[in-house]
């Protein structure tokens, strides 16, 4: 890995439509020897991923703007601007949803890198400010997502799993 300090501006990185949101891969595992990746997530009202777990990934979220409802098997909590969430290794089931009427922005770090590869596989390239609808859950899409889960050691649960 290059030992030079890197400065990444706000327009750099790949932008993808993921889970109804606009995700920007700020720095990928390819750039960090797979030690970590950082993803900026802009989440519209009602946006957010389904419940999922990834036992081999340590994940953190810092809320930059707005608020999201964060759910785990222990309950749900609204996390607002300046709030921080840590998902340690081990596979705790979690998800978040923007239950407000305003956009939320999160900074997500994954260690080791790899989760951004799932986003690249499921997402579609978009520009800043573009939000695509979540793709229809056809049998083909279900199979595709299940194969991704297996490939990346993740498990996805039904949307109401944590209700």
Automatic annotation (TrEMBL):
Entry-linked InterPro entries: Cupin_2, QDO-like, RmlC-like_jellyroll, RmlC_Cupin_sf
Name of the featured protein: Cupin domain-containing protein
Ranges where the Cupin type-2 domain occurs: 40-109
PANTHER family in alphabetical order: PUTATIVE (AFU_ORTHOLOGUE AFUA_8G07350)-RELATED (PTHR36440:SF1)
SUPFAM superfamilies xref list: RmlC-like cupins (SSF51182)
């Amino acid at each position: 890995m290059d030992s030079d300090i890197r400065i990444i501006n706000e327009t750099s990185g790949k932008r993808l439509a993921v889970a109804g949101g606009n995700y920007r891969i700020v720095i990928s595992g390819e750039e960090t020897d797979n030690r970590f990746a950082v993803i900026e997530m802009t989440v519209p009202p009602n946006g957010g991923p389904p419940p999922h777990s990834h036992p081999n990934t340590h994940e953190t979220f810092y809320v930059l703007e707005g608020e999201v409802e964060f759910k785990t098997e222990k309950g749900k909590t609204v996390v607002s601007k300046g709030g921080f969430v840590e998902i340690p290794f081990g596979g705790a089931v979690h998800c978040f949803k923007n239950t407000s009427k305003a956009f939320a922005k999160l900074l997500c770090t994954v260690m080791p890198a790899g989760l951004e590869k799932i986003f690249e596989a499921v997402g579609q390239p978009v520009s800043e400010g573009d939000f695509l609808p979540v793709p229809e859950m056809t049998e083909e899409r279900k199979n595709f997502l299940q194969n991704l889960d297996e490939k990346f050691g993740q498990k996805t649960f039904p949307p109401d799993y944590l209700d």
